Amino acid sequence: MTRWLEVLDPGPLTTVQDAGRPGLAHLGVPASGALDRPSARLANRLVGNEVQAALLECTVSGPTLRAGPGGALVAVTGAPAPVHVAGRACDVGVALWVPAGEVLRVGPATAGLRSYIAVRGGLQVEPVLGSRSYDVLSGLGPAPLAAGQRLPVGPACGTVPAADVVPPPDLDAEPLLPVVLGPRDDWFAPDAVVLLTAARWTVTADSNRIGVRLAGPPLARRRHEQLPPEGVVTGSVQVPADGQPVLFLADHPTTGGYPVLAVVDEDALPAAAQARPGTTLRFSVGHRS
Amino acid sequence: MIGPRPAGGRAVVLDLDEDAEPAQTAAAVRSLAKQLGVALLEVVPGAQTVLVVATGPAGLQQLLAALPRLPSAPTAAETTGVVVELPARYDGADLDHVARTTGLSVEQVVHRHSAVVYRSAFSGFAPGFAYLSGLDPVLRLPRRDTPRTAVPAGSLAVADGWTAVYPRRTPGGWHLLGTVDVPVFDLGVDPPALLGPGRRVRFVPTS
């Protein structure tokens, strides 16, 4: 039987994500993929999918979806949000049955920024370069959800864990992100590292899946020449000439011409991806490897 | 080689000697890792660097210990093949700014930019984005202080010693000279990138 979810209301920005398409940076192809990877894996586990199955990543607020024939087993994780099935309030972090023709509504996140919705069987949209992730930088992958669209759902495989309930993540009011200095820390004035770790950085409204754009005291350079373009990793804190850093997330450009002062630990990136515009975050320097 | 410079816990940026070719060095790094049985996630040549991302810190350390075995200065492969001619409308938002800053007229900017046969040095930034070398030094300008959050698809732009065509609407910190309507990245074509490394390209002004 063909199974699907019908999009009644897509929400502000809801995209399909999986583990992305790493390994193609030398072709200019960003890795992409779910930004809060632990939450995405958890949602898949709750419905008995492989952890890398394609699912929905919601931004700020979620979509309204109607289950096609056969119904759908879903789970919502990540940023906690009000969830309704057939008009009845339900929990996040638990598998929910949406009967055929009934509606799943995921509302505005009450903390954090990005909620995840997994459906048993995974979303079977057409993969591009080996992944079903939508990359906002390159436009590769399935376009963001639109009203009236039917999202194909794959056949279920494996078993659903019995009565598994997971509390929503503890989203810190002000995440502290550990960094390793470099690769271009020597391009900055000595006080730039001090400022990086001393200041509270405000997440600005033009942040997206490419990067968290930050506002704070300008980080001054010691070397003012142009940096020849070079490869950059996810988690890079890149500093353009105006001194306001950008923390690169999964859809970041694969090379850049502004120096990278420090790189955030991978384990801390989900917290960065959950930071809402207007909130603040901080950096701490661990070691230089 | 100078460095390596750490880029997080499992990646390094290798600074290359001026005469080493980054794309060739990247290939040498891949083959060295294969010999060692070290899994690499990404190997990304830049203008004068190679970024190496391992799957974990242990693999990275193993590779770094073996780096002295890399050939000292792999040089560029021969550039051959036809010159790709791309029609360009010189109607970019920064054309006047570039003319003022360089002390040239708009016509002179167009002439100097379109007189050169460029070479695609490496890819990066976004799919299909090729860094084209050979820019007239007079047109060499630093990147914008604040990148634009979006530049139009097909934007023909310059920054530092490079020129490039933005494959699609993306953020961008380069100066916009004009527009190229020919798609430079098309998944329906093999290879998808029109301007792969080594390709030569010239821009033909259209009105």
Describe this structure in words.
- The complex is a heterodimer of chains A (289) and B (207).
- Chain A is mainly beta and 289 residues long.
- Chain A has two domains: 3-153, no CATH class; 176-285, Cyclophilin (Beta Barrel), CATH 2.40.100.
- Chain A contains three helices and 20 strands.
- Chain A has helices at residues 37-46, 190-198, 269-273; strands at residues 3-9, 13-17, 55-59, 64-67, 72-78, 83-85, 88-90, 96-98, 103-106, 114-119, 150-153, 176-181, 201-203, 211-215, 230-231, 236-238, 246-248, 255-256, 260-264, 280-285.
- Chain B is of the alpha+beta class and 207 residues long.
- Chain B has two domains: 2-69, THUMP domain-like (Alpha-Beta Plaits, 2-Layer Sandwich); 83-206, Cyclophilin-like (Cyclophilin).
- Helix content of chain B is 20%, strand content 33%.
- Chain B has four helices and 13 strands.
- In chain B, the strands form three sheets. A seven-stranded mixed beta barrel of chain B has the order 5-12-9-10-7-6-13. Chain B has a four-stranded antiparallel sheet with strand order 1-2-4-3. A two-stranded antiparallel ribbon of chain B has the order 8-11.
- The model of chain B has no long low-confidence stretch (mean pLDDT 91).
- At the A-B interface, β15, β18 and β19 of A face β2, β3 and β4 of B.
